[in-house]
Amino acid sequence: MSDHSELDSENVRDAGFDDWLDAAEAHEAYYLECDAGHGSLPPRQVCPECGSTALTKEPLPEPGEIATYTVTHVATPSFADDAPYATAIADFGPVRMTGQVVEIDLEDIEQGLEVEVAVTVSETTGERVVAFQPV
C-alpha cells in the first residue's frame, strides 16, 4: 500500500471552490448570474432557481450584511482549536453565504453588521475557509 495518501490530500483542490477562494484572497470574489438574474455561488454549472446553464461571473457586491450568526463555544473535533468562533450568514445582494466572522470581538457581532469577504485558515485543520471581516 502506498504511503502517498497524506501528500495526495495536500495537493487535492476542490474544483470551483478553491478557485473561488483564490479569487476572494485576491479581492476579486464573484458570484454566478444566470440570464434571469438569479445569483448563486460556484461551483455551479446550472442555475439552482431556473435551470439555466448560461451563467456568467459577476463581481460580488460589497459590503455584505450579517443576516444571522451563532457563536460556537464547544466545537466538533474538526473545529476544536478554532473555538470559540462565530459563524454567520451574510447577505451580499444576489447571494448569501456562510463564513466565519473574524477580526472582531465575538460580543460585538450583530445582525446588520457590514462585512467584506476574506479567507482565513482553520486553526484545527489548516484549511482555508470563507471569512467575513467588518468593513
Would you give an account of this structure?
With 135 residues, the protein is mostly beta strands. The chain is 12% helix and 35% strand. The protein is built from 2 helices and 8 strands; from the N terminus they run ααββββββββ. It has helices at 5-11, 17-25, and strands spanning 30-33, 39-40, 56-59, 64-72, 85-91, 96-101, 114-121, 128-134. The strands form 2 sheets. Strands 4-5-6-8-7 form a 5-stranded mixed beta barrel. A 3-stranded antiparallel β-sheet has the order 2-1-3. A hairpin with a 6-residue loop joins strand 7 and strand 8. The radius of gyration is 16 Å and the shape is globular. The N and C termini lie far apart (50 Å). The relative contact order is 0.17. Residues 1-7 have low confidence and may be disordered.
Characterize this entry briefly.
The chain has 135 residues and is mainly beta. Helix content is 12%, strand content 35%.
- SSE order: HHEEEEEEEE
Largest sheet: 5 strands, mixed, barrel
Straight-line distance between termini: 50 Å
Average pLDDT figure: 91
Please tell me what the overall shape is. globular
Q: Structural class, judged by helices and strands?
A: mainly beta
What proportion strand? 25-35%
Q: Radius of gyration, Cα only, in angstroms? A: 16 Å
Note the total helix count. 2
Helix content: 10-25%
Main β-sheet, spatial strand arrangement: 4-5-6-8-7
Number of strands: 8
Low-confidence stretches: 1-7
